[in-house]
Amino acid sequence: MSARRSRITPEREAELHEAVLDLLREVGYEALTMDAVAARTKSSKATLYRQWGSKPELVAKALRCTQPVSLGEIDTGTLRGDFARMVAHSDDAQMAKDTALMRGLAHAVHESPELHRALRDLLVDPEINGLQAMLRRAVARGEVRPDCPALDFVPHMLIGAFIALPLIEDRSVDREFLTQFIDAVVFPALGV
Amino acid sequence: MSARRSRITPEREAELHEAVLDLLREVGYEALTMDAVAARTKSSKATLYRQWGSKPELVAKALRCTQPVSLGEIDTGTLRGDFARMVAHSDDAQMAKDTALMRGLAHAVHESPELHRALRDLLVDPEINGLQAMLRRAVARGEVRPDCPALDFVPHMLIGAFIALPLIEDRSVDREFLTQFIDAVVFPALGV
Q1: Nearest CA in chain B to A154
Q2: Chains A, B: CB contacts under 8 A, how many?
Q3: Minimum-distance CB partner of B156 among A150, A168, A183
Q4: Distance between CA atoms of B24 and A44, rounded to whole angstroms?
Q5: Inter-chain CB proximity A189 and B191 less than 8 Å
Q6: Model ipTM value
Q7: If you write DSSP's letter for every residue of B98-124 in order, what string do you get?
Q8: Which CATH architecture has domain B67-190?
Q9: pLDDT tens digit string along A107-125?
Q10: Which of A1, A177, B56, B136 could form a disulfide with B114 if both were Cys (CB 3.0 to 4.6 A apart)?
Q11: Where are the domains of chain A?
Q12: pLDDT at B5 over 70
């Protein structure tokens, strides 16, 4: 922790992130301003810029805080255990809220390369890295063959399922669906 | 063919659909009007409404015409052959254009339940039905076990891959990716 970052408590940070997500749901990304965040959270714009850098970064970091656990933190000793832990940490109500939020952001991402980059750097890439570390450990333990071609496609399977389910069946992913999809598709593809 | 439908030639219909797609790319779904389509195609609005019913149906039918082949038409005698035919009919340049177009429509779909319904009825459901018929034949031939749990998730895998790849790797699906994904994920999950 640098001195710069320590000026704000974790509680205050969580409060600010929640306010940003509320504003995002209310007005959308385009209409969200740093002025509105400052007013809503009774903080100065200088503090916001010092702590978060920019609006895209603020939004990406606020979204990261909705994640119950980072995949990089999960290490149970088996791949089945790691996936079960991932599902156990998921929250059905939160996933439904996230689906609505991400749907609203999908449009903004294509309009704003800065938002695209911030979401990728702060949200997507760290999780994909965590997932790949999980898979490398499974290969090292002999659970998955090192030349298994599905190893390259696990992010596509998981992220694809999250986006495809609302389109195909008009519902958000929940723990039951995640468990069924992982058992029916991800493990067989990996030969687990 | 009913008398009503025969008033327009297939060539003229294709011309109209191409004009609708051009307008969609230029102005987006919200700003697209039946007046603009009528002006662009030098046809009367009465003809447009008689032939297509409504703006959402016109857009869905125009999009359907960009598909090189309907999955329901493919029946080579083996599941591997059916998927190979599906990939062979895909056109890399067309898939890239479709990705951009669908990205623009994703926002409109959530604003317009009528567009959502038209895309589902005219575009998504017929392809999912064609895919399911393909899988049922594979089960009947003994290529896939009837209780294989992945049978329920083939649309999620394929549609998910189409949407997840641009997000994860910043590129559109092409025939090479489709082939790799089907070989690495879909066939192993189905036990083929």
Answers
A1: B185
A2: 96
A3: A168
A4: 43
A5: no
A6: 0.85
A7: HHHHHHHHHHHHHH-HHHHHHHIIIII
A8: Orthogonal Bundle (1.10)
A9: 788 788 899 999 989 988 9
A10: B56
A11: 5-63, 68-190
A12: no
